[in-house]
């Protein structure tokens, strides 16, 4: 039986843009597991009411519910130890936690200025009031006041990515020779603005831009085939 992945969808059920859900998609692909993506919306959480989780990603693996992208990755490694490892031991966990911390302190704040308002615009009408109220309370500003113009947004994201530009100039992946969960942590954050923004937020000639295309090409080009608002 396929694993069920509940993923945040916009009004268009074929556009999925949650950074945390993209981390889980890539983790499932890395493990080589069959999974089915089910659309989930803020306005209707009934399908996951029994999970004990209020936000996605949530997976259902047989009779087991698991939520939170980090916990899902750890669960997949425990449950499927003979498949490719996402987080390899204490050293791998330290590496992944460092990347997660950099994403939280540097990359998310820059991505928010590009992606938050466009993501709001993609939601179904019933989900928009919750999203606006919760995010404006979180950031203390109107969504429109958070949003940056293209030049500012691209420049801010490029500056935030400086540590990763340096690392990826020397290695093909954040994990080294092959991708693993540290790569999916950053990729999920960047896939969010890539899907919802009217412009491509990354410089494709940069080290991170080239890595991003390598990531899009993984697993028979799975992520690269995802619909964006520019399609």
3D structure, described in words:
- With 231 residues, this protein is of the alpha+beta class.
- It has a four-stranded mixed beta sheet, covered by helices on one side.
- Helices cover 54% and strands 9% of the residues.
- It has helices at residues 19-31, 69-79, 89-122, 128-139, 143-146, 150-160, 162-170, 181-196, 207-221, and strands at residues 3-8, 35-40, 58-61, 64-67.
- It contains nine helices and four strands.
- The longest helix has 34 residues, at 89-122.
- It is globular.
- Helix 3 (89-122) packs parallel to helix 8.
- The model has no long low-confidence stretch (mean pLDDT 97).
Count of helical regions: 9
Measured by DSSP, the beta-strand proportion falls in: 5-15%
Q: What is the radius of gyration computed over CA atoms, rounded to a whole number of angstroms? A: 17 Å
Label the structural class: alpha+beta
| Percentage of residues assigned to helices | 40-55%
Q: What number is the mean pLDDT? A: 97
Mass-distribution shape? globular
What is the number of strand segments?
4
Low-confidence stretches: none
* Major beta sheet, strand line-up: 2-1-3-4
Oligomeric status: single chain
Largest sheet descriptor: 4 strands, mixed
Would you list the SSEs in sequence order as H and E? Answer: EHEEEHHHHHHHH
Give the distance, in angstroms, between the N- and C-terminal Cα atoms: 32 Å
Furnish the topology, listing elements before pairings.
Elements: E1 3-8, H1 19-31, E2 35-40, E3 58-61, E4 64-67, H2 69-79, H3 89-122, H4 128-139, H5 143-146, H6 150-160, H7 162-170, H8 181-196, H9 207-221
Parallel strand pairs: 1-2
Antiparallel strand pairs: 1-3, 3-4
């Amino acid at each position: 039986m396929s694993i069920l992945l509940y993923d945040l969808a916009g009004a268009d059920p074929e556009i999925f843009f949650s950074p945390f859900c993209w981390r889980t998609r890539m983790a499932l692909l890395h493990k080589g597991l069959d999974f089915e993506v089910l659309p989930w919306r803020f306005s209707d959480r009934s399908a996951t009411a029994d999970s004990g989780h209020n936000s996605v990603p949530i997976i259902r693996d047989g009779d087991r519910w698991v939520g939170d992208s980090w916990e899902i990755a750890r669960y997949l490694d425990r449950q499927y130890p003979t498949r490719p490892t996402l987080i390899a031991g204490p050293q791998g966990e330290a590496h992944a936690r460092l990347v997660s911390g950099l994403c939280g302190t540097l990359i998310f704040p820059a991505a928010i200025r590009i992606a938050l308002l466009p993501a709001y615009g993609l939601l179904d009408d019933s989900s928009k009031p919750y999203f606006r109220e919760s995010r404006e309370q979180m950031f203390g500003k109107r969504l429109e006041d958070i949003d940056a113009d293209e030049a500012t947004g691209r420049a801010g994201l490029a500056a935030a990515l400086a540590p990763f530009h340096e690392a990826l100039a020397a290695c093909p992946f954040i994990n080294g020779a092959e991708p693993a969960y540290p790569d999916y942590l950053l990729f999920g954050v960047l896939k969010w603005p890539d899907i919802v923004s009217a412009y491509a937020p990354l410089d494709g000639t940069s080290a991170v831009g080239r890595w991003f295309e390598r990531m899009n090409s993984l697993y028979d080009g799975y992520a690269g085939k995802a619909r964006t608002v520019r399609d």
